[in-house]
Every structure is written in C-alpha cells, then in structure tokens.
Amino acid sequence: MGELGFEPSRKYLGVVSMLNGNARTWWESIMSNVPSYQLTWDFFKERFKNRFLGERFLRERCQAFKDLVQDTMTVAEYEIQFLELLKYGIGLVSTEKDKYDKFLEGLRIGIRDRVATHHDQVFKDLVDRAKTAEHMEILTASQSSRDGDRDRDKDRWRD
Questions:
Q1: Model's pTM, two decimal places?
Q2: Span of the secretion signal (predicted)?
C-alpha cells in the first residue's frame, strides 16, 4: 500500500480491515492488550511479521539478498529485486554507502566497470548510471551485429 501513497495510519486501517480468520482473531487479541495510541502501521508490521512470517522465512530472504546478483536480469529487474529483498537484509546495508556498494557489487562486470569510476555514492545515481551503461552495451552489441552482417554480405559478393 505504500506504493499507492497512503499515509501510515490509512495503511494500518486498510490492512487491518482485510484480516480474517486466524489473523483477525490474533489481531483482536493484540488490540485488546495494547493502548490504541500504540496501534500504528509500524507496530502492526513488526508484530505481523514476527507472528506470520517466521524466522526461517526471514533468514531465507536475508540469504537471498546476500546472494543477489544481476546475472541475466536487466538493470531495472535487478533494481526491483534488490529493493524487494532489501527489507530482509536491511541490517546488512545500514547506510547509503552500504546499499550503494551492495548494488554495485551485484552488477554484471561490464556494467560495473562502467559505473564504478564515479565518486558520488548515491544509490539512485548509481542505478541511473547502470541503466545508461546497459543501454550503451545494447547499442554497442547491436552495432557490432550489424557490422558483422555487413562484412558477411561483402564476402558473399566477392565469391
């Protein structure tokens, strides 16, 4: 719901209104023992995560974050995956520099080499530079392919 721009209080009320079954019963028991001013989005999120996600799931997601590399993904796909898993590995990247370094480390070597030379360490700028480098990589590969086709055509005419 954060992606939709809801205020935390609206997120909290919206999510709680959708609970049913065991989750609703569990939350009603929490609400009966906690002062209403403490019933916030962050409070709900933390309690819900601890109750329903479990330690094993959280460890697996944290490991997935540690292991994440771009591999065959586009930079945009890698960014989405990175940001999705970041919430599970937040203790591993507690500063903007850590976040920057982790993302950079996971980029494909050709892209990493093109973007690592910049001195600013702003995550958003790194992502933008990586997308530009990827675009340039695609254009270069496309140009090389066209040049290769042109050379083959020349050879055919010579024979």
A1: 0.63
A2: none
Q: How far apart are CA 119 and CA 158, in angstroms?
A: 51
Sign of CA dihedral 72, 75, 78, 80: negative
| Distance separating alpha carbons of residues 143 and 22, to the nearest angstrom | 59
Q: Is 87 helix (H, G, I), strand (E, B) or coil?
A: coil
Structural tokens at position 87: 């919430």
Which tokens go with 88?
């599970």
To the nearest 5 percent, what fractions of the chain are helix, strand and coil?
75, 0, 25
- Are 66 and 92 in contact by the 8 Å Cβ rule? The answer is yes
How many of the other CB atoms lie within 10 Å of CB of 115? 21
